[in-house]
Amino acid sequence: MDLTVPEYAYMFGFLQADGHLYQGSGQRGRLTVEINIRDIDLLYRFKHLTPYNSSVTERTRSTNFADSHQSAIWTLCSLAARTTLNQLGLPYGRKSSSIAPPLVSFSSRDYLRGLVDADGSVGYTGPGIPFVSLTTSSTAVGVHLCEYAQKATGAARTLKRNVRDGVYNIMYQKEAAQALAADLYYPGCLSLGRKQVKADSVASWIRPADMRITGPRRSWTAHEDRELLQSDDIAATAEKFGRSEKGCRLRLWRLRTARVSPPSNN
Fold first, then answer.
1. Which residues pair with 121 in a beta bridge?
2. What are the backbone angles phi and psi of residue 58, rounded to the nearest 5°?
3. What DSSP element (H or E) covers 181?
4. Distance (Å, rounded) from C-alpha 232 to C-alpha 228?
5. For residues 23 and 29, what is the distance between their CA atoms, to the nearest angstrom?
6. Model-level pTM?
């Protein structure tokens, strides 16, 4: 399983996010991937890529979201195949926070596309803004996506876990989403067909003439924070910093209410 080959890199990323590696007694065990029946073609592609006996089956069951949910399951039992996947970085058992990009050479954009297809989204928000997103519990995966996307789009992201469930929700919108979608979902790549269609649609988005373009966010320095806390004239301080008065008042409120760390005395 050479991860410099795009199809295998994609497959491995998808398996890390949506695959389950079970270890039984002795040499028993299996890899399973269960997805919606509408995406069954992808499992047959995985079966074709794998030089070991495997099966694709279908089942219908009741879930919290539907009384009759149809899914497709790919099952691979070969010990040699499972050992290879495990050594590359697919853990046995629960894995959501422990997965990480492979330590061997691999095709990053294909690997990331596999993760996005399994645990991410591509499309438009309610107001019609294009986006590409990934939800992950893994810090290593989040860092890799942010580093790759910044090189591909110029958009920087700061990782921060969601307070409610402790995961990272990493999102790119507008032109950054267009650039990232075009890079990940290139013509002829292995992907979920429905997400490929959405990625192609994102490329056609045109920014409305009345939509303001915002520049990159400036971080606040400790010096600015100290001077802001001591200021008696917010308007004058905002002009000195080259910031908006509203932004300065919001920063001051965050400092005084401990929403952000206070500046050091050094």
1. 133
2. -125, 150
3. helix 174-184
4. 9
5. 4
6. 0.79
